[in-house]
Recover the amino acids of this structure.
């Protein structure tokens, strides 16, 4: 890159979060560059030089990206695995003018390429960084791009900064603009906020600054919704407590499930479209009780109940994430986690649950059984009302550990089916329809329980099960 710039007499600068991280002594994962003139040619040449991929992000703003892909299996690892470089056209007539138009002073620093390592810092970003202070680069920063309102909270959580009083006041005065950016941009910022340390604190900070209501009105209305005597918090504060407890479980699963720490660690690498495993789990925690205001009722015994809030909440969570243009896989996963989050409570009520009930739980929650067990633990740890005893909590955690062991036990995997649908249709003179699938599932369940081991036994079991109204 440096040789190309010298050869073509082009000027470019490292800018934004890249310089901020360098000042902090952190190796930046993603590199931001401002280029005088059209950035596409230097970006293409750089991509060719490193064997990376080139993408145009915005024709309007002259932005493009170079991605260094991972090495093919068996080949030497490249020097930049997975790293990205974003090239943008210089805004204004000088780098100083460009920096003054940026979001925050800590992101308004630059280092010229090629050149010295001197930091260009017209707004005092280094001093603010040393003071752990997040300060808007100008009074129009949030009018120019309202996404910066949400980004301010995300930067606080990621970088340990704190907005100064003037910036807080400016955010509060512009909070009504928070929902104006493109939905997918808001979703990307929310993903990063939920992946940051202590995400419940991030949601609380959104509320403090007046951003929660315009961004996530479905979460905002949870405030003040009282619950029953099993709970010590209203729905909103319970949600934050649930997120805090889940954060503990996700950061140290071995403390809760010592025998499955390795398997759960591997699940952290899963991705759901544009969202990682942790952010999907945190979205589920944030939205798991989202329907409670609409399902609240009081029984004859005086107890408040929220019947059906799991199924209604699944639809509401899907609608919210759909509004943010979330990737389909992330949307479906969060919705399923919300829909099934009460299943474990039903299992617990059997005291102790039968082997059949345990298998049915795993079948009903697959392929997210481990995630739902962890959500059940965070839910239990965040419920401390008068009617909850220490024994209740211990029983829940004990069953959660047992069920987590079953999730990864080889014998818990469904065995090969002894029958197919056409076998049932032919041998039992049945018509095609949903009953066939239910019969096959029940026969497979009998196999797992050891009650059926041969094809003839499977057919006998199917004939008996046909007499059951509820298969």
């Amino acid at each position: 890159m440096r040789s190309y710039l010298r050869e073509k007499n082009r000027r470019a600068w490292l800018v934004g979060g890249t310089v901020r991280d360098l000042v902090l002594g952190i190796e930046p994962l993603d590199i931001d560059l401002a280029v005088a003139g059209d950035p596409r040619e230097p970006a293409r040449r750089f991509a060719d030089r490193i064997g990376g991929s080139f993408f145009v992000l915005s024709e309007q703003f002259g932005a493009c990206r170079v991605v260094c892909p991972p090495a093919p299996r068996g080949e030497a690892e490249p020097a930049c695995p997975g790293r990205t470089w974003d090239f943008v056209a210089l805004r204004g007539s000088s780098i100083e003018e460009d920096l003054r138009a940026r979001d925050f002073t800590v992101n308004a620093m630059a280092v010229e390429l090629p050149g010295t390592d001197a930091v260009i810092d017209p707004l005092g970003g280094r001093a603010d960084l040393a003071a752990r202070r997040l300060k808007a680069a100008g009074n129009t920063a949030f009018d120019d791009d309202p996404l910066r309102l949400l980004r301010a909270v995300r930067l606080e959580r990621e970088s340990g900064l704190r907005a100064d009083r003037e910036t807080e006041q400016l955010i509060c005065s512009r909070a009504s603009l928070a929902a104006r950016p493109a939905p997918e941009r808001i979703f990307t910022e929310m993903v990063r906020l939920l992946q940051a340390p202590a995400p419940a604190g991030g949601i609380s900070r959104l509320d403090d600054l007046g951003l929660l209501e315009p961004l996530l009105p479905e979460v905002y209305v949870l405030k003040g919704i009282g619950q029953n005597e099993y709970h010590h918090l209203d729905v909103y504060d319970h949600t934050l407590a649930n997120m805090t407890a889940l954060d503990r479980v996700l950061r140290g699963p071995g403390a809760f499930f010592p025998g499955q720490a390795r398997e759960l660690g591997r699940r952290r690498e899963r991705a759901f479209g544009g969202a990682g495993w942790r952010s999907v789990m945190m979205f589920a925690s944030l939205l798991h009780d989202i329907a409670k205001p609409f399902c609240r009722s009081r029984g004859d015994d005086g107890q408040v109940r929220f019947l059906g809030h799991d199924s209604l909440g699944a639809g509401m969570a899907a609608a919210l994430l759909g509004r943010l243009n979330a990737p389909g896989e992330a949307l479906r996963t969060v919705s399923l986690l919300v829909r099934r989050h009460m299943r474990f409570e039903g299992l617990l009520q059997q005291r102790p649950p039968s082997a059949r009930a345990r298998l049915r739980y795993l079948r009903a929650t697959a392929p997210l059984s481990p995630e739902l067990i962890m959500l059940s633990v965070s839910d239990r740890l965040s419920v401390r009302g008068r009617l909850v005893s220490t024994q209740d909590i211990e029983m829940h955690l004990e069953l959660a550990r047992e069920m987590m062991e079953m999730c990864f036990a080889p014998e818990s995997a469904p065995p090969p089916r002894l029958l197919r649908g056409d076998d049932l249709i032919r041998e039992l003179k049945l018509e095609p329809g949903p009953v066939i699938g239910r019969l096959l599932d029940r026969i497979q369940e009998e196999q797992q329980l050891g009650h059926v081991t041969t094809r003839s036994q499977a057919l006998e079991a199917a004939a008996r099960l046909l007499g059951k109204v509820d298969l």
Summary: DSSP finds 26 helices and twelve strands in the chain. The mean pLDDT is 90. Residues 271 and 277 are 6 Å apart (CA to CA).
